[in-house]
From TrEMBL:
PROSITE patterns: FE2OG_OXY. Coiled coil: none annotated. GO terms for biological process: mRNA catabolic process. GO terms for molecular function: demethylase activity; mRNA binding. It comes from the Eukaryota. SUPFAM superfamilies: Clavaminate synthase-like. Pfam families: 2OG-FeII_Oxy_2. PANTHER family: 2-OXOGLUTARATE (2OG) AND FE(II)-DEPENDENT OXYGENASE SUPERFAMILY PROTEIN (PTHR31447:SF7), HYDROXYPROLINE-RICH GLYCOPROTEIN FAMILY PROTEIN-RELATED (PTHR31447). Residues 396-494 form the Fe2OG dioxygenase domain. This is Fe2OG dioxygenase domain-containing protein. Belongs to the alkB family. It comes from Arabis alpina.
Length: 527
């Protein structure tokens, strides 16, 4: 069986980036942990009419990211460059050089021809080929977008129309095509802005194999090392594991931790591992002219993804639904029902006006109005955000607003009131949506906005942190959402604006980040 010595060597050289020294003692456990840290998206949807039927053309498509780290990617790219050099010297059997805006290609394992002059695309069974290089029993792609659509067509070389769905392929990711995603949707790669390498892997139909073909012994009887942890790989929790669990238990002991617990990692080590596997993007840039000066309006914006797994998200959504029912029964002090295309909102920790009220109260915190305290699960979320280096310990939130969007609901452009300190954050649940940011955002009609310079997708389980220009210069809004969505916005009040009755929550005092620094290399390599 093929031995992944390359992966182990790369792991040794990079130290798996942020994993602590204790993991170095457990090679099998490290492999397990790395497999569990892969992010997997399998629910792609794009509906098109095909042969008179409405079909999800992306059914069967999967995107697996963070499969190869930066060190492994570099080694694979070096190997590809060596192969390119061999091809230029005529040492390889089946090489295509680029014509026009095409790409160069080297084929291994079989020779196949694309359709030409009416001949169908097919495998050339009598053509001999170089075997798979040992390093190519794996895959890498470099950053670009791939377009999908059942009606894709070429307008001119490098320019395509009819593409219904554009999917970014991050470095070190694996795109799996199956079902409609492979058979109904055409796909193409538009002109790439810079050099890119990709490797496409396929299995030959046995009846179409070359006459000289012999199976590679290294690739026979491969099996998943973690076949008994499939549910963990999907970030699901087994029924036995969730029985009688509180939200606090789940936030600390969910499926990822359960698999690690079998390998005798301490609770602190398990939390360390999960925190280090959060993806963090902090280099947002969009330049606009503000008061006569060119400014990066997104400076200070951060997006942290994979902060909450699927089981945690479900438990939190269930808690929010309970709060929504309490609001309907009149059991909460500060709950708003939507008017027009607004969204439902429930305030905790302080009561505030979004804008000047009809009675003349200004926008901001209403110091003499009482409101319900933070729910326990919200305090658990705040604790995680601080401990996992999402929010700084100098700005621990002491209030929140729970937003519940039904289909078609929205939030108009605004800058958050300065009764609240920066940074603040919003956590997304239930369904992904886009947030628009721009210094010139304005309302054309309810749910329709113009002047939005930057559209940012907010994945479920992610945390958007707003600070600097991203909080103070750029307005932000949520256009009409296509389906139900929940978000919770956490803020810290300016002490001078706190309600007169306010008492700090004992559970939120003295929270400190986990005792390590997030290394820049970790942040740089995850996007």
């Amino acid at each position: 069986m093929y031995k992944d010595t390359f992966l182990r060597q790369s792991e040794h050289e990079s130290g798996r980036e942020a994993f602590d020294a204790s993991l170095e003692k457990h090679k099998e456990e490290r492999k397990h942990i790395r497999a569990l840290s892969v992010t997997r998206k399998k629910n792609f949807v794009c509906l098109e009419k095909v042969n008179g039927n409405t079909v999800n053309i992306l059914e069967g498509l999967e995107l697996h990211t963070r499969v190869f780290n930066a060190t492994e990617q570099k080694k694979i790219v070096d190997q590809v460059c060596e192969l390119q050099e061999k091809a230029q010297k005529g040492e390889l059997k089946h090489v295509f050089t680029a014509r026009g805006k095409g790409r160069s290609a080297i084929t291994f394992g079989c020779c196949h021809r694309n359709s030409k002059f009416g001949d169908p695309a097919r495998i050339l069974r009598d053509e001999t080929m170089d075997p798979l290089p040992s390093i190519f029993k794996m895959i890498i792609t470099s950053q670009c977008n791939i377009l999908f659509g059942s009606n894709l067509k070429v307008d001119e070389t490098g320019e395509y129309s009819g593409g219904s769905y554009s999917l970014p392929l991050s470095t070190g990711s694996v795109l799996v095509l199956n079902g409609n995603g492979a058979d109904l949707a055409k796909h193409c790669v538009p002109e790439v802005p810079k050099k890119r390498i990709s490797i496409t892997f396929r299995k030959l139909n046995e009846s179409k194999r070359p006459v000289w073909f012999k199976p590679d012994p290294d690739l026979i009887e491969l099996a998943s090392v973690f076949s008994d942890h499939i549910s963990s790989l999907e970030h699901e929790v087994s029924p036995d594991f969730v029985v009688d669990m509180t939200l606090e238990d789940e936030l600390d002991e969910e499926a990822f931790d359960s698999s690690l617990e079998k390998h005798k990692f301490s609770k602190e080590q398990r939390e360390h591992i999960r925190a280090m596997n959060v993806k963090r993007k902090r280099d947002f840039v969009y330049l606009e002219k503000v008061n006569g000066e060119i400014v990066n309006i997104l400076e200070g914006l951060e997006l942290h993804t994979d902060v909450f797994n699927a089981a945690e998200q479900k438990r939190i959504v269930d808690k929010v639904c309970e709060l929504q029912e309490m609001a309907r029964q009149g059991e909460l002090k500060r709950a708003f029902t939507p008017q027009g295309k607004g969204r439902s909102a429930i305030q905790f920790g302080c009561c505030f006006n979004y804008r000047t009220s009809k009675s003349g109260n200004p926008a901001g915190i209403l110091r003499h109005e009482t409101v319900d305290p933070l729910p326990h699960f919200c305090k658990l979320i705040i604790t995680r955000l601080v401990k996992w280096h999402v929010l700084p310990p100098t700005c621990v939130p002491d209030c929140c607003v729970v937003n519940i969007y039904d289909e078609g609901d929205c939030i108009p452009p605004h800058v958050d009131n300065h009764d609240f300190l920066r940074p603040f954050c919003t956590v997304s649940f239930l369904n992904e949506c886009n947030i628009l940011l721009g210094s010139n955002l304005k309302v054309e009609e309810t749910g329709e906005y113009s002047g939005g310079s930057y559209s940012l997708p907010l994945p479920v389980g992610s945390v958007l942190v707003l600070n600097g220009n991203g909080a103070n210069v750029a307005k932000h809004c949520v256009p009409e959402v296509p389906t139900k969505r929940i978000s919770i916005t956490f803020r810290k009040m300016n002490e001078s604006k706190r309600p007169v009755w306010f008492t700090p929550e004992p559970d939120l005092q003295g929270i400190q980040p986990l005792p390590y620094e997030l290394k820049p290399s970790v942040i740089d390599n995850v996007y």
